Amino acid sequence: MIDLVIEPRVSKTWEQFCAEAPPYSIALDGYVEGPPAFSPTGPHANFDHHAEVDRLSTRSTCMQVYMAVTMGLFDTFSMDGEPHATMYINDPDQDTCLSVWVLRNHKQCHGLTIEKPLARLLIAEDIMDCTGGAYPVDPTRASMRKQAWIFEPYFDARLRRQLHGMDAAGMRAVIDEVGTRIDALLAGQGEEVVLDTRYEVVGGGAIWRLIVEHGAHARTALLDAGVRAYVSARDNGDGTWTYTLGRMSPYVRFPLVPLYRALDAAEIAAGGLAGGGGSNTIGGSPRVGGSRLAPAELERVIDATLAVLP
Q1: How many percent of the chain have pLDDT more than 70?
Q2: Is the pTM here over 0.85, yes or no?
């Protein structure tokens, strides 16, 4: 039995998760703030690549889950000889959706070869997610158009600004629809959509750009435009903002950890909540409550922080 618990925008420490979640619990893609972890006491597991990791080296959550499944996860997560686990998530993004599908359909993950559609989907999502979508790909390739169709339910919700306040039922609907589309792909019935890579530069500094993403795949066009560091801004429509901070690799001089700290301090000064953060190549504003910083204030904080860094 593989169950799913959805708690929107909830995040816990590894210690909290192990103390509070029942035995046979698996945290996915940011539900636990911290690197991948496993405890045989319980057992409990965390698959993630957002915090306290080198993101390019850690790989995506779905690829971690796939490797764990093929290397014996359900030897431990089993009861009466049958796979047994409860998954915990706080967001229905592409990586989460595919991770949930892999755990629910673990038998299909054994014996994959590169020509199988599932193998190609896992590899493509791994590359795209570990780079935050900012990877140079040809948007006209059939494989990318199929991948875009699979995750279209999530992209639509994000562009319609529904994620900020989406409840558990809404997230479950997105995950289930994505799962249905993965099943269709594997049955040879996958469809394609055109990738929308439109974005607008609305500000930034000498080495970074402040952008608004108008298309679901805007970040795939950033490298071609020479953008190596960016902040993507999304107006939540309630006086708060969602920001994604990113750089193409650790080799780009746009150090995110000091920026997370500076922006958290600015949030507190503005009467908001701290909690922004992420990995060394991509992160963002607090998931709970969003950011109270307007784009002009965010620009000021980032440029002031960069000016005093070595």
Answers
A1: 100
A2: yes
**Between the CA of residue 128 and those of 63, 150, 277, what are the distances in Å?**
12, 14, 20
CATH number at residue 286: 3.10.310
- Do both 81 and 230 map to the same domain? no
Residues 154 and 60 in one domain: yes
User: Of 125, 154, 186, which residue sits at a domain end?
Assistant: 186
Domain of residue 136 covers 2-186
The number of domains in the chain is: 2
pLDDT one-digit tens code per residue, 26-40: 999 999 999 999 999
3 state DSSP class of 169: helix
Cα–Cα distance for residue pair 72/78, rounded to 1 Å? 11
The rounded distance, in Å, linking the Cα atoms of 248 and 167 is 32
Exposed / middle / buried, residue 6 (Cβ in 10 Å: 0-12, 13-18, 19+): buried
